[in-house]
Amino acid sequence: MSLLFLSARISFIMLEYNEIRERKIIIYNNEPCEVIEAHVARTQQRKPQNQVKLKSLMNGRTFNTTFHSTDKVDEADINKREIKFLYHNREEYWFSDPNNPKNRFKLEVKLFEEQAKFLKENMIVTALVWGEDEDEKIISVKLPIKVELKVKDAPPSIKGDTAGTGGKQITLETGAVITAPLFINSDDTIIVNTETGLYVERL
Fold first, then answer.
1. Residue 38 to residues 23, 75, 128, 137, 154: CA-CA distances in angstroms?
2. Number of Cα atoms under 13 Å in the Cβ half of residue 153
3. Is-same-fold flag (11-77; 146-202)?
4. Nearest in space to 188 (alpha carbons), one of 154, 158, 163, 165
5. Which of 5, 121, 169, 178 would bridge with 97, disulfide CB 3.0–4.6 Å?
6. What b/e string do you get for 17-26 counting C-beta neighbours within 10 Å, with b at 16 or more?
């Protein structure tokens, strides 16, 4: 896989224990880890501590740990680059440099998790890159929070239901199945939140 178009420089900022918050990417056990949850607990008997849930961006493993008031960690300033989704064949997801279509490479589905079902051809997504020079590696892929998708199949709508008081299962052009209001029809274009997997609105 060629990543020559992704030149990443990693710099570090020291974070205090209470600065370790959701969505931060820190270095823990020499690996980049995303903070999924963080809660600073203070009690009269004990010094404050930050109870954190981390996700390794190298292998996808999630785990809990605790940072105490004397702890500090490195925040990784990981470079971000746009890449274009081309197609997928079973578990192979192929991308390219948007400015150089010949520079193609495949990524593992675990990098997108549940968001993979909302990928469509020619969609521009954000790649997070870890490492430098020949050791650089894409460790995570983020879709836009909201995307426009066409409804491939939907049960017949119910006449008069324009308020969206009910819900039904619909299939999108990417094959994803989500719940949408009863008035949504096949061939409609809707907006979906890729983080929650929920219907947002019809265009």
1. 10, 15, 22, 27, 40
2. 6
3. no
4. 154
5. 5
6. bebbeeebbb
Give the single-character DSSP code of 187. T
> Superfamily for 79-142?
Nucleic acid-binding proteins (2.40.50.140)
Structure tokens at 179: 């719940």
Structure pTM? 0.70
DSSP state for residue 57 in the 8-state scheme: T
The single-letter code of the amino acid at 72 is K
User: Was domain 11-77 assigned CATH 2.30.30.30?
Assistant: yes
Count of other CB atoms within 10 angstroms of residue 186: 14
What's the angle, vertex CA 196, arms to CA 31 and CA 86, rounded to 5?
70
Domain 146-202: CATH superfamily, name plus number:
Nucleic acid-binding proteins (2.40.50.140)
Instruction: Give 10-66 pLDDT, tens digit per residue.
Output: 445 789 888 899 988 898 988 889 899 999 987 767 788 999 999 888 777 889 999
Task: Copy the structure tokens of residue 118.
Answer: 């909302």
DSSP for residue 61: -
